[in-house]
Amino acid sequence: MKILETKGLKKIYGTGETKVSALNDIDLVAKRGEFIAIVGSSGSGKTTLLNMIGGLDVPTDGEIWMDGKELQKLSDDELTVFRRRKIGFIFQQYNLIPMLNVWENIILPLKMDGRVVDKEYVMEIVNILGIREKLKNIPNELSGGQQQRVAIARALAIKPTLILADEPTGNLDSRTSQDVLGLLKITSERFNQTVIMITHNEEIAQHADRILRIEDGRIIRK
Amino acid sequence: MWYVWAGSITFLTGILIAVFFWEKERKTIRQLQKMLDHAIAGKALDVQLDESKTATIENDMWRYICDKEVFEQNVRREKMQIQSKISDISHQAVIPISNIILYSQLAEEEIRTRDREKSCVLEEMAAIQEQVEKLDFLIETLVKLSRTETGMIHVNKKYQLLQPILDTIRIQFQEKAEKKGVQLLIENTGESAVFDLKWTIEAVANVVDNGIKYTKSGGTVKIHVESYSSLVRMDVTDDGIGISEMEQASIFHRFYRSEMVSEEPGVGIGLYLAREVMKTQDGYIKVSSKIGEGSRFSLFFLKNEISQN
Fold first, then answer.
1. Tell me: the pLDDT tens digits for B191-224?
2. A-chain residues within 8 Å CB-CB of B306?
3. Which of A35, B184, B264, B280 is the most exposed place for a label (fewest CB within 10 A)?
4. Same domain, yes or no, for B64 and B93?
5. Is residue B296 located within the same domain as residue B208?
6. Where does the record place the ABC transporter domain (chain A) (predicted)?
7. What separation, in Å, do the N-terminal and C-terminal C-alpha atoms of chain A show?
């Protein structure tokens, strides 16, 4: 079942002489439960692509369909709700709220949506990710790897349609990277979650079911 | 008189408020009813994206319907695959069986008439044995096939040492590797993880078996265990023929057989089973490989038991 489809996605910055096309005719399909890695050198357009899929940036041309909705057709308010309810973000910089403890950080997106916290489900995530002992701590008291695990838990807690991970191990050493990515993979399989991850690291990309290479704004399939 | 007026106004306001909430609740219930009717009819829900409570319920409902549909699709596909594979194996089984009958009848006749040399009987015996081996392979495949049926893998996870897996693998494959001239190097480990011993041995055995099968004489197959903070990783590395990047995702699919190895016996179950086993015990398996340089299969195990509370 298709969960995400982009059709002829284009992004052009500037006009005339200074025109730069960051993305060129990107056709991408993600099926439910897939773990896809998008690899490419910096400047290849992979972050631009991820931002557009996440509704953080607007394409110059083309369509993005997710869960039966066309993203460009949504109003700003609808897009906000859509992002909060359907997309779990994992960033390189973790982006945890420093004043809130780990538990509060994890359930924040649920609270924002006015939903009842499915405590059993969230605790299961917390247990797999091995952060049970840290729930009362604030993010600053945790290591980078632990903070990223909290970010994974936060992304999973809302049972999103899609998890978007932007260089999730960019700030971690290689051993911790393996650990954190392994946990992302294990949890996404266990909870039947679809993940699109961008990275420039081949070793990290190999954890995915499918690797897409992007160069000069185009997906090159091998 | 003023208190009569005040009393009646309060009373009327109360009724108006009650009617308002009653109407609101009826509306919500009507919406939920409509949503369920749509779901029952298999129609797509038009999930609203607003801040209302019904919208969040709609969203969850939609998620549930989609999950269920994906699951059903998978079950249907698996059923079809299994059916076609079983009919394929049954057809293949007919030939060795009729051959065995034929050769044994010939042998019987020759022994009875005693007008031919002994060597003829021996030839037929060898032919029978060859056919029996084919049959044996097919039956073994059927057994494996039945194990890959959805829900057949029941794991009994517990936190335990990984070394017993390595010991079993060593005993099981030392001879086979030597026969082929492949060096099997297993590094001992003191690490522990959460897994089911019996199934995990089967998973690792399938990976090692492939490694030996697709590595030429003079090559090596290595097993190495490494520990991270919450995971343990077991690498099975060979310097065999390797797997192209295109194929790396497909090799874990059920019944997938690479074009490159189509002459080797096999039905494409081993790695699928390995992946299913790892998934069931909350681990996973991945591959990295280059054509001509070899492959490395990494099995990841969780270190902590997931308690249910």
1. 999 999 999 999 999 999 999 988 999 999 999 9
2. 124, 127-128
3. B264
4. no
5. yes
6. 4-222
7. 24
A83-114: per-residue pLDDT in tens? 989 999 999 999 999 999 999 999 999 998 88
B257 lies in the same domain as B141: no
* B307 in a structural domain: no
ipTM exceeding the 0.90 mark: no
Nearest by CB to B70, which of A1, A77, A145? A1
Interface residue ranges in chain B relative to chain A, Cβ cutoff 8 Å: 44, 47, 49-51, 53, 55-56, 59-60, 62-63, 66-67, 69-70, 73, 228-231, 233, 245-246, 249, 279, 282-284, 286-288, 300, 302-304, 306-309
Contacts for A123 with CB less than 8 Å, ≥ 6 apart: A132, B309
For A173, the 3-state DSSP assignment is coil
**Distance, CA of A107 to CA of A122 (rounded, Å):** 8
Q: pTM of this prediction?
A: 0.82
Residues A124, B56: C-beta atoms closer than 8 Å: no
Q: Same domain for B207 and B285?
A: yes
**Domain-embedded: residue B79:** no
Which residue range(s) make up the domain with A197?
A: 2-220
Number of domains composing chain A: 1
The domain containing residue B265 runs over which residues? 158-302
> A66: number of CA atoms within 13 Å, CB side?
21
Mutation pick from B231, B278, B279 vs chain A, by most beta carbons of A within 10 Å, is: B231
* Closest residue of chain A to B246, computed from CA coordinates: A222
Residues B44 and B124 in one domain: no
Cα(B39)–Cα(B62) distance, integer angstroms: 8
